[in-house]
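yo

u said u wanted the structure for the complex thing, so here. seqs first:
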Amino acid sequence: MVGEIWDLIILSPMINVLIVVSGFLFNNFGLAIIVLTLIVRGITMPLNLKQIRSTKALQELQPKMAELHKKFGKDRQKLAQEQMRLYRESGVNPAGCLLPMLVQLPIWIALFQSIIRVLAVIPEDFLKLSGHLYTSWSQVFSLVPLNSQFLWLDLAMPDGIYLLPILVGGTMWLQQKMVTPRTGDPRQQAQSQMMLWVMPLMFAFLTMQFPSGLALYWVISNVISIGMQYFITGGWGGLTSEAATKPAGRDKKYITRITRVEEKASDYRETEADIGADVGADIAATEVSPKGGAGPARFQPSLRAIKRHPKKSKRPKRR
Amino acid sequence: MKKKIIGKGLLLAVLLMVLVTGLALPTCQPAQAIPRGWSGVAIADGALFLGSMEGKLVALDSATQQRLWDDVPFTQKQSSSLGCQQGTLAVAIYGTPAVTAELVYITGYNGKLYAINRQTGASRWVYPREEVLDPIVGGVVVAEGKLYFGSSDGVLYALDAATGDKLWTFASGGKIWGTPAVNGATVYIGSFDKKLYALNVADGGLKWQFETEGAIVSTPLVYDGTVYFGSFDRYLYALNETDGQLRWKYQGDNWFWARPLVDDGIIYAASVDGKVYALTADKGDTVAVFDLESPVSASPVSVAGNVIMVVEAGRVYSLDAGTRQKKMLAELGEPVYASLAASDGVIYIHSADDVLHAVNAQTGAELWSFELESE
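structre next:
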């Protein structure tokens, strides 16, 4: 039952579209995969935009996170509460970065199944292809099996010269690096470093195992992500040594929320003064560390943004 | 709460990694479907020969179901990479073996053709000796001291049946997955390049070729001066044997994969659309269309005036175009892709669970079944 629904909704449409697109593109299956990637990324564009903006907002919260760590580092429960409050108030979801990848997982599986069927990799799978072809699309019958050669690749097989694993790993690293937040928190730093290296290495390894048609999808998809990241955030993000990002890159949706949060910094200071902690030293520590990272540098443009949007920077009522 | 969210995120990431790597790692080989094979049965003097899904040539006495000799295993080297140790894999066997007085010939998906001593099971020769061809899916045909088979490299090979020496080759423009057909001085073969070729058996010279709109896997049938074969363009073609001119064509709803069969002047062409088209051999007029409700890729047999078909769902049918009746003979409960064979009123069916079934062609009673997997 689940298999039938999968075939009906995802696999069969993908197979037929890939075949027809190949037909239009000089029977070139590699180009068809690239077009498919563009279509999929076009459809998931809103999700990706949300993710990029959310990630950027997350980065801009880093100074605040560092502050909270300094203040509530010993009281983990309180720290968690305050961090959660910060996320909630700024509208940021720290797990949101993985969602676009998870959404694409069915696409990867369907593309893998499509490749082994339309390229006649083994007879069992090729025979199953007949059940997926739309009988009303007569051209699909004359186009299969598709040609598996694309550039130096046999799209049905892993890349024999290991260039594709490097491309997949490299583009994924670049993309990951662009979104890696600069933080003074060593724990988060370690986590970011792990994500920065683990995912590219894992996908580079997978590229050596899976048909290169699937890896071609990953490469193109990563390049699109890098492009989107560049244009939406207005820079190379974590790739540049200069931590500052253009204020214009900020998404309007988050401006108000983050501004509010930033305004609350003073609230924290007040609270801190009330409880007798050395808030001034904390603020100084976060705002001055020139090599300590993006924290203070991101903080400053945010403050400038408040000045440019006086109406949106209304101080929220204190609870 | 934050911990929970980050925890969920990490959990999702781990699940993603496990899921994706899980597809690739356990087998220590590229994440691709593994070919298993669907060899049909060759019958000679009461002996049955077929390739098992463990990559072995099995020889059985049909009367006693005893092995004539120990199974002959065929293996291939597994490529090593990324710390995976090099090992051996069983060879998938798709083609039905061919039998002569002395030898049994069998093709492997590893790109080898094996000649085995029919009496002892000892290896006589292998082609090619050192290197390998591209995967061989079709079977081998022997005629007049020559044998013919095609490979995924698009080449039809003609060898000396006794020595395995290469006599000639013919290169088509696409993969060859079908089994050739020989009639007199001509060998016919279809290719993924959408063409059917008629070649001279003496030297492989091209007599004529006919281009369709789809790939050709179906083994041609030569009957009464006409060559019948199906294509992936959903047409069954009837060509003039001498010059390849089109006599008629008939459109089905999906690919024609199985070899057509003729019985009493009627062509039975099974399609993967689940239908069997019964057409007059001379003009292609429809006599009957049998809907078997499951794809048919296994080539049929004719037993005592009844056409026997097996569908992928494992049901065995007896068809009679004269009365337009179909009768379900047996239900094996397992998928079947392998070509059928029949002798002395018994049908032999190799199902996808690697079991050989012997079914009475009249009553459909299962006479015996034999598990080919070694214990």
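Residues 243-250, 270-319 of chain A have pLDDT under 50 and may be disordered. Chain A has 14 helices and two strands.
cya
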